[in-house]
């Protein structure tokens, strides 16, 4: 299971349930998503398994479009 957090810039942080925030995510305030997460993509699943977290900035998503 994972927990999903958003900050004011709408960046995404996915952390294994029960784990603490990584040092990378210290910038800004993070709010926990109230929605229940049933599935995550394979990319996110692999990152969480290897690093313990997955972070994506909204600016990276805008560049791809």
Report on this model:
With 65 residues, this protein is an alpha+beta fold. It has one domain (2-64). It is 26% helix and 28% strand. It has two helices and four strands. Strand 1 and strand 2 form a beta hairpin. The longest helix has 10 residues, at 42-51. The mean pLDDT is 82.
Key descriptive features of the protein:
65 residues; 4-stranded antiparallel beta sheet; 28% strand; globular
Termini separation: 30 Å
Please report which band the strand proportion falls in: under 5%, 5-15%, 15-25%, 25-35%, 35-45% or over 45%: 25-35%
Strand order of the largest sheet: 3-1-2-4
* Rg computed from alpha carbons, rounded to a whole number of angstroms: 12 Å
Secondary-structure blueprint of this entry?
Elements: E1 2-7, E2 12-16, E3 30-32, H1 42-51, E4 53-56, H2 58-64
Antiparallel strand pairs: 1-2, 1-3, 2-4
Please provide a brief summary of the model:
8% of the residues are buried. It is built from two helices and four strands, in the order βββαβα.
């Amino acid at each position: 299971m994972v927990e999903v957090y958003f900050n004011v810039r709408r960046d995404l942080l996915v952390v294994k349930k029960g784990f603490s925030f990584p040092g990378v995510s210290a910038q800004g305030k993070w709010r926990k998503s109230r929605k229940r997460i049933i599935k995550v993509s394979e990319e996110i699943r692999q990152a969480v398994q290897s690093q313990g977290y997955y972070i994506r900035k909204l600016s990276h998503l805008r560049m791809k479009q």
